[in-house]
Design goal:
GO molecular function: transmembrane transporter activity
Largest sheet: 6 strands, mixed, barrel
Strand order of the largest sheet: 3-4-9-6-8-7
InterPro entries: ABC3_permease_C, Macrolide_Exporter_MacB
Number of strands: 20
Helix content: 55-70%
Subcellular location: Cell membrane
Membrane topology: Multi-pass membrane protein
Number of helices: 29
Pfam family, one: FtsX
Oligomer: single chain
Length: 886
């Protein structure tokens, strides 16, 4: 029987192609989803862990869940000597160790000035930036400068530059013992930051150990504060011995653990953003691909019903025939799945090699893992075999005599009633699961106890399972509700002429055929609409979330900035609106006792602030008696002020003599809070008061700040060009410090655009799946109506009228199914977006008018095209010959 099965497959290869293409596309879709998830996780991991460079292990701070102030002070005040680097380097298997030290510096070369961020030197493999020219500094007050800063200052390798600790505000330097006029340093090399480890700061300088000590105002490098230690280890390193040398509240983690923690820091409840995003669409893709494969294989078996019956007449029993169909399905599924996986890998490799993917800041790489191959192949084979069970059973259950004629199997009342009951149960269960998922997610978002707090993936899968059950119930029950919709649309169309009336009559005649044809298109359109809606929601929701987390594009701080410099900044290509405001530094304590370094900014009005900030300030008011504070600090800690809390500008100083002297006897201000973040990378928080507090003596100006909006596309050199232009405009101010949240925000925006670019490809795949389903079912429908078409021709219907009736029928099927698919897809897209993106911000629920309109137009055109060849065959066949053949 196996040989017969193979021979039948060869003989009817053209009939197998549509089903094989559906399996191929479905498995390619799944493989691409896996590969894209691998690539995005790899990209995000590299972006978030670029600071680790080539380290195999690192030391992380490990405080108790609720540390005391003493414990926190001890953990965050460690110096290089506390890590016993010499003893660690002597341990077997330790090939390198670098203490993570840093400093904010000001650079001067004659009349040119710049500010920047600097890190301590170390082994080349442990440095997060590369030295492109010259060498890394080793001693003798050496420094390696970012290429852009070197160009701004007019410096080359071998030149000298004066390095000073950068002051946060007037009179507050990073190191109290540092030389007032700075230290003369030799430029040993130039650095580049290819992985964006210091994108926020526009690059980073590398200082030799002695220069790092001098900038920090200490006599010896061992006294410099160190945040961590990065280690280069071989496979036989004695990690236990290293752990014994670490100070309290420290732990040694390997690179894999550090990478995992870094990526999880991007997410809520420990769930990866990318994993969450792809899980929702991946589950939906699996569901729709399964239904498309099942529907296509049903058409295939129905087309070969006469062949199967002939096998029955020559001696094949039902068991053999049943096994033959399953064997054929298995072979078809295996071959098509392998081709689909190959196609998916090829498409992903092509996408990774294009410029679109390279613009994410860390280019995507093709990461092929065994699940990306095994899961699609197994899924394709299993679903093809499962899809063949029902059609094979139906085809082999009829007698040979009945099967020799193309009789449409009638659905018994009992079978129809069982299908209705089953679909009703699945629909109720699906809606209940969807409601449960949304309810649990909502509870988690509003801060109440929820299963989503600790088991979010399970809650998400429950909701996606609810979508699957709901959609499956609608497809199973399509024979009950879809013909009713078709009758309503057909009644309107029938008034336009005899061809439309014939089409309306044909639609009413066979509800099973209508349901099968409509379900094929319903599946494809639902997928397209769901992905389009989810993509639009993702774009809008994530853009709003990014606007909150990256509230400004760029800022510049300094004590000597002039109005002329502000005007020069406005003339930089890519710089939009600019707000120039005075600043003062204060230290405040919230209701929970957390101390916060706050930069207070005096603004003319909230309206002026809103022009340069992306945060939503709707409903916020700022009077002369208020101070606007963020809800979270730079590190993500919640800043808790109740509505009656007041901040005394005079008493809430930063604890230094300078700040105390500049703070006049100010009033108590009522704290108003709004959700804005990442205004500055230097201070815990940035607060706003009306500018009158600086002019009437409540606050004394300690520095100035420029808030800038930026459009990187307006500058030929992009983000770097905008930042460099602003730095050049302010290079006459020694302590001017330019930082750009725009660099990080641009990276995230580009990553989202890359995701959307891939989803456009997935949408095209979904449309192709729908085209195959429509073509198959319409072809079968026309083939089965050869006698009907011949009878119509015999009683006087012209060829043109017959073609038009089939075209109208196809158009009705496509539009009714398409509109239903758009509505279902939009609902599923909204549900998926609510489950996924409510964790990151307020969920936008747009209706994708453009995409849905295109989908309906394409589906209508596809249905018309699918009816052309069958209609031509029916119209060109002489009535007598057609009647005889039927």
């Amino acid at each position: 029987m196996f040989r017969i099965t193979v021979n039948l497959m060869r003989k009817t290869a053209r009939m197998l192609i549509p089903a094989g293409v559906a399996v191929l596309i479905g498995t390619a879709f799944i493989a691409s989803t896996f590969l894209f998830g691998n690539a995005m996780n790899d990209s995000l991991t590299r972006q978030q862990t670029a600071i680790y460079a080539g380290a195999d292990a690192m030391v992380l701070t490990d405080l108790p869940e609720h540390p005391t102030d003493k414990q926190a002070d001890e953990a965050y005040s460690r110096t290089v000597v506390d890590y016993h680097l010499d003893r660690i380097r002597a341990i077997e298997g330790v090939e390198g160790a670098r203490a993570v030290t840093a400093a904010a510096i000001a650079l001067s070369n004659g009349a040119r000035h710049a500010t920047g961020y600097a890190i301590g030197t170390g082994e080349t493999s442990l440095l997060p930036v590369t030295v492109t020219h010259g060498d890394r500094p080793v001693g003798g007050h050496g420094i390696a400068l970012p290429e852009r800063i070197a160009e701004q200052l007019g410096l080359r390798v071998g030149d000298t530059v004066r390095v000073s600790p950068r002051s946060n505000t007037a009179g507050n330097t990073a190191g109290s013992q540092a030389p007032a006029d700075g230290v003369e340093a030799r430029v040993t090399g130039l650095t580049a930051d290819p992985n964006g480890a210091y994108a926020y700061d526009g690059g980073v300088s590398i200082l030799s150990d002695d220069l790092m000590a001098a900038v920090n105002g200490v006599a010896d490098f061992g006294q410099v504060n160190a945040a961590s230690v990065y280690l280069d280890l071989d496979a036989h390193a004695d990690t236990a011995a290293i752990t014994l040398l670490l100070p309290r509240y420290s732990r040694l983690v390997d690179r894999d653990e550090a990478d995992r923690l870094a990526v999880e820091s991007l997410s809520t409840n420990g769930t990866s953003v990318v994993t969450t995003f792809l899980m929702s669409f991946g589950v939906l893709a699996l569901l729709v691909a399964a239904l498309v494969i099942a529907n296509t294989f049903q058409v295939l078996v129905a087309q070969r019903r006469r062949t199967l019956a002939l096998l029955r007449t020559i001696g094949a029993d039902r068991r053999q025939l049943y096994a033959s169909v399953l064997c054929e399905a298995g072979i078809l599924g295996l071959v098509a799945s392998l081709l689909g996986v190959t196609l998916g890998i090829g498409l992903m490799a092509l996408l990774c090699a294009t410029g679109v993917m390279k613009t994410t800041g860390a280019p995507l790489r093709l990461i092929v893992t065994w699940p990306a191959i095994a899961v699609p192949v197994a899924f394709g084979m299993i679903m093809t075999v499962v899809a063949s069970l029902g059609p094979a059973r139906a085809a082999t259950a009829v007698t040979p005599l009945e099967a020799l004629r193309p009789v449409e199997p009638a659905e018994t009342t009992r079978r129809g009633r069982a299908r209705a009951i089953l679909s009703a149960l699945m629909l109720a269960s699906g809606i209940a699961l969807c409601a449960f998922g949304v309810w649990q997610t909502h509870l988690s978002v509003i801060g109440r106890a929820s299963l989503a707090d600790d088991h979010y993936p399970a809650v998400l899968l429950a909701a996606m399972g609810g979508c699957a059950l709901t959609f499956t119930a609608l497809v199973v029950s399509a024979v009950h509700w879809m013909p009713a919709l078709m009758r309503g649309a057909g009644a309107l169309a029938a008034t336009t002429g005899p061809s439309a009336a014939i089409a309306h009559a044909n639609i009413q005649k066979n509800p099973r055929r209508v349901a099968a044809t409509g379900a094929a298109l319903l599946i494809g359109v639902t997928l397209v609409s769901a992905i389009a809606t989810g993509a639009a929601s993702a774009k809008t929701t994530m853009a709003d979330a990014l606007a909150t987390r990256y509230s400004v594009d760029m800022i510049a701080t300094g004590t000597g900035m002039t109005e002329e410099q502000s005007r020069q900044v406005r003339r930089v290509k890519g710089v939009g609106r600019v707000l120039d405001a005075p600043t003062a530094l204060r230290h405040v304590t919230d209701d929970q006792g957390h101390g916060i370094d706050v930069l207070i900014v005096g603004i003319p009005s909230l309206h002026d602030l809103a022009k340069v900030m992306h945060a939503d300030l709707t409903g916020v008011t700022l009077t002369d008696r208020d101070i606007l504070m963020p809800r979270q600090s730079l590190g993500g800690t919640v800043i808790d002020f109740d509505r009656t809390h007041t901040a005394d500008l005079a008493a809430a100083t930063d604890g230094t003599d300078t700040a105390a002297a500049t703070g006049a006897s100010g009033p108590g201000l009522t704290v108003v809070q709004a959700d804005y973040r990442r205004v500055s990378s230097v201070y815990d928080a940035v607060a706003f008061v009306t500018a009158g507090h600086f002019t009437d003596g409540d606050l004394t100006e300690q520095g100035r700040i420029l808030f800038m909006t930026a459009d990187p596309d307006a500058n030929p050199n992009g983000v770097g060009g905008v930042i460099d232009g602003v730095r050049e405009a302010l290079n006459a101010t020694p302590d001017a410090n330019v930082t750009g949240p725009i660099a990080e925000r641009d990276m995230w925006d580009t990553s989202i655009d890359a995701m959307m670019a891939l989803l456009v490809g997935l949408i095209a795949v979904a449309v192709l799946i729908a085209l195959i389903g429509v073509a198959n079912t319409l072809s079968l429908s026309v083939i089965e109506r050869v006698r009907e078409s011949a009878t119509l021709r015999a009683i006087g219907m012209t060829r043109g009228q017959l073609r038009r009736s089939l075209a109208v029928e196809a158009l009705l099927l496509s539009l009714v199914s398409g509109v239903a698919g758009v509505l279902l897809g939009t609902l599923f897209g909204w549900l998926g977006s609510t489950m996924v993106f409510s964790l990151y911000g307020t969920v936008a629920m747009p209706f994708a008018w453009k995409t849905n309109g295109i989908v309906l137009a394409v589906s209508a055109l596809a249905a018309l095209l699918a009816s052309l060849l069958p209609a031509r065959r029916a119209a060109n066949t002489p009535p007598v010959e057609a009647l005889a053949e039927a």
